[in-house]
Amino acid sequence: MRQRIIVCPLIQNQGAYLLCKMPLDRGVFPGQWALSGGGLEPGERLEEGLRREIREELGDRLEIGAIKPWTFRDDIRTKTYADGSTEELHMIYLIFDCEAENRDVTLNDEFVEHAWVEPEDLRDYDLNEATRRTFLEKGMLLAE
What we know:
The protein is α+β, with helices and mostly antiparallel strands. Helix content is about 15%, strand content about 40%. Strands 1, 2, 3, 4, 5, 6 and 7 form a 7-stranded mixed sheet that branches. Strand 1 and strand 2 form a beta hairpin.
């Protein structure tokens, strides 16, 4: 089983958090709302990788100011690729609090939709298990 270190930005702007919807046919959580983020490249520093992932997935017009490490965790997940193949991965998530200076998002093909969501509205979204856990740990969702 391959191991991946995932840098995951928890992006906030004026009290709302950025969620992205995964395509139905691929990813670790197909069709669900998630945080952006992705794997570090060999030799890449944490903040460098985080900013690269933000640029690749959310466009280069989204301006990120302050970045602070928040927490980490790991999980075993099955990822589905665009060609339909799957792979079991040991994913180590490094989660960062990020402050966006604007809301100018341009999605790449890894997501089909995005939303800036107020904490009280998070329960209205079909959050994937990892994203739900992140917001539970932040105290923004109540355990069900």
